[in-house]
TrEMBL record:
InterPro entries: AB_hydrolase_fold. Gene3D superfamilies: alpha/beta hydrolase (3.40.50.1820). This is Triacylglycerol lipase. Signal peptide: none annotated. It comes from Drouetiella hepatica Uher 2000/2452.
Amino acid sequence: MRHNPVVLIHGIDDTCAIFETLTPALRNLGWSVYEIDLVPSNGDVGLDCLAEQVAAYVKKTFAPDQLIDLVGYSMGGIISRYYVQRLGGLQKVQRLVTLASPHNGTWSALLRPNLGASQMRVNSEFLNDLNRDAWQLEQLNFTSIWTPFDSMIVPANSSEMPVGKNRQVWVGGHAWMVSDAKSLLAIAEALSEPLRVAQPCS
């Protein structure tokens, strides 16, 4: 099977160094892996601004006809969704995998009083707006991978979505989602899934 290049999108306060286990694991399995450092990553700017950095990176790095897959960890999953749903990523991305992402908000975001964190709060205007047309994700292979032991995403099942696939893995905590063997296997399987074929109108 020929794989699309994979772009990894990190979470809050992270850099691409967070993928020191995931990146070589995917490369050993045959994927070309790309990483981007989002600046600043502490939530001082909106997730929409960080998604624009992803869009610019993709445009600069890949040929116009090169399709890609995205893996977004935590905040990176929401940034990836914004790129797909708002910035034209639907024409570029065939598979989107999110890891422990607060698709429906997290109460822990109340602990940080800045714009990026406020956008990830439960019932935030930003997430409510993004979730109103989450149906767009049905146009690609979308998988949300999460663990019930997540103390950063509160409640943990905030990662579940009404579209695509939700895959629960028994991983001991939020930070381990990018290094635990069970999570790495789930990511590789999601990236290996055959693309869905659109059904003709009846």
